[in-house]
Design goal:
Layout lengths: L2 E12 L2 E12 L3 E5 L6 H8 L7 E6 L2 E2 L4 H5 L2 E4 L11 H9 L6 H10 L15 H13 L5 E5 L7 H18 L2 E6 L2 H7 L2 E6 L2 E7 H4 L5 E8 L1 H10 L3 E6 L5 E5 L4 H10 L3 E7 L4 H9 L1
Parallel strand pairs: 3-8, 3-9, 6-7, 7-8
Antiparallel strand pairs: 1-2, 1-4, 4-5, 9-10, 11-13, 11-14, 12-13
């Protein structure tokens, strides 16, 4: 398996602000690779350098083995891009918008119809784009990125501003493109659930620097036994739980649960101790690790 994208030691400064500081990663054939971080972390600047919209101050970018700086046209010929807010002519139809853009790469009307069908807009080809919902505009932007059957898609905040239904439609489309069409996808988002749902690997950045780069499975691998307990009376139970041997830590959360980390003590053992001391235990569930929790931990 070969990398379709290599980004090596990328750096970009805007005046006194070092927006990207030494970021490196690779995207492999058929992989969905996520870049996540808070607003201002350097995600969009990284994508702008990869697509050639911004010139990197330092570092190397290779697309399908071609150096972006040495041969820009050759490097981007199999690249499709969806920016956060794709711009279209509102007075033109979906077909006419894509037909206009397709002429830059000499694609036929048949290709335009193909990509509109791929994103589920085959019944809206003649509708004016100004009548489109935000989700339909995102799908039209994705169709535009798919013109010419690219090997690599770069998607910047593809679900930002969408409702849950629109988000699901876009995420399902992205997953289908990876599985059925074997397209490599680089997706940037601060929607952590999107990355968790879609991606094979993820790069977590903040303040322009790499915090972690691992498979999503490894990022979410449980590092310790954390449980969430609904017990009454809660305040008294918290002090008792903290004193139990094998309880590493215990805190109350905003929903009235006790969240505790166990070490050398089973949840069944803790449950028995609480019941023996007269407490009512209504729930005792393991806490699934999420990217949101991981990111908060890294931020602290």
């Amino acid at each position: 398996m070969n990398p379709v994208l290599i980004a090596d030691n990328l750096q970009k400064r805007f005046g006194d602000v070092l927006a990207v500081d030494g970021i490196s990663f690779e995207v492999w054939e058929g992989e969905i690779f996520g870049i996540l971080g808070p607003n201002g972390a350097g995600k969009s600047t990284t994508l702008a350098m990869i697509t050639g919209l911004v010139r990197a101050d330092k570092g190397t970018i290779k697309l399908l083995g071609i150096d972006l700086r040495r041969d820009f046209k050759g490097a981007v010929k199999d690249l499709g891009v969806l920016v956060e807010n794709p711009g279209f002519y509102g007075h033109l139809s979906a077909f006419d918008n894509l037909r206009l853009f397709s002429r830059f790469k000499e694609h036929s009307p048949v290709e335009v119809h193909r990509v509109l069908g791929k994103v589920g807009l085959e019944k809206s080809t003649r509708k004016k784009v100004r009548t489109f919902s935000q989700g339909m505009k995102k799908r039209l932007g994705l169709a535009n990125a798919l013109l010419g059957r690219p090997s690599l898609l770069i998607l910047d905040e593809p679900t930002n501003g969408l409702d849950p239904i629109g988000t699901k439609i876009i995420l399902d489309l992205i997953k289908s493109l990876s599985i059925r069409n074997k397209i490599s996808i680089l997706i940037s988002s601060n929607q952590l659930d999107d990355i968790e749902t879609l991606c094979d690997r993820a790069l977590i950045i903040n303040e322009g620097k790499t915090l972690l780069c691992k498979t999503v499975r490894d990022l979410l691998a449980p590092g310790q036994d954390t449980y969430r307990i609904k017990v009454e009376p809660g305040e008294k139970a918290l002090s008792v739980i903290r004193a139990v041997p094998g309880v590493k830590s215990a805190e109350s959360d905003d929903e009235g649960y006790v969240r505790c980390v166990l070490s050398g003590l089973s949840p069944a053992g803790l449950n028995r101790r609480l019941i023996a001391q007269g407490f009512d235990v209504f729930e005792l569930n393991p806490v699934k690790k999420t990217l949101k929790e991981l990111f908060i931990q890294l931020g602290n």
